[in-house]
């Protein structure tokens, strides 16, 4: 089994995001100094991650207080067993990134974010979103400031 090693090529890091099904979004509530982690569906394009969901809830409350976020995505994960449990290994490719979350208020920009999300899961546009649904949804745009990749077992 290979050892853990950094992924240096930005195209490989972007390929991990393009193929990941979910991200884990880490937030920090400044009032409680408490971390909060949530798995989410997402879309990625041009160094931006898009999220969508309800306009209320713990995630929204924390982002309003502290827009700094951390995220993680992984693909090709597999536990490699052995006769000796101390020799088990894990195979994966992963990305960890940091950025700033922004609430998207403009209707056309919301549609753009929802389009990126839909395309991430294999749908082909153009899409027609019902206006009342777009207006009701919360769309979050994470502008990525830095990303690193790592792999093991390859």
UniProtKB/TrEMBL annotation:
It holds the Pfam family Pyridox_ox_2. Gene3D superfamilies: Electron Transport, Fmn-binding Protein, Chain A (2.30.110.10). PANTHER family: 5-NITROIMIDAZOLE ANTIBIOTICS RESISTANCE PROTEIN, NIMA-FAMILY-RELATED PROTEIN-RELATED, FLAVIN-NUCLEOTIDE-BINDING PROTEIN. This is Antibiotic transporter. It comes from Methanosarcina mazei (Methanosarcina frisia).
């Amino acid at each position: 089994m290979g050892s853990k090693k950094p992924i240096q090529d930005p195209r490989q890091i972007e390929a991990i995001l393009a193929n990941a099904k979910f991200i884990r979004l880490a937030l920090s509530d400044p009032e409680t100094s408490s971390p909060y982690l949530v798995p989410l569906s997402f879309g990625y394009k041009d160094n931006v991650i898009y999220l969508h969901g309800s306009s209320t809830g713990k995630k929204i409350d924390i982002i309003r207080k502290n827009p700094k976020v951390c995220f993680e995505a992984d693909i090709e994960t597999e536990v490699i067993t052995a006769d000796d449990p101390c020799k088990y290994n894990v195979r994966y490719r992963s990305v960890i990134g940091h950025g700033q979350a922004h609430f998207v208020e403009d209707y056309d920009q919301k549609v753009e974010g929802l389009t990126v999300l839909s395309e991430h899961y294999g749908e082909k546009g153009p899409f027609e979103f019902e206006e009342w649904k777009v207006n009701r949804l919360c769309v979050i745009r994470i502008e990525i400031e830095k990303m690193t990749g790592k792999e093991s077992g390859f």
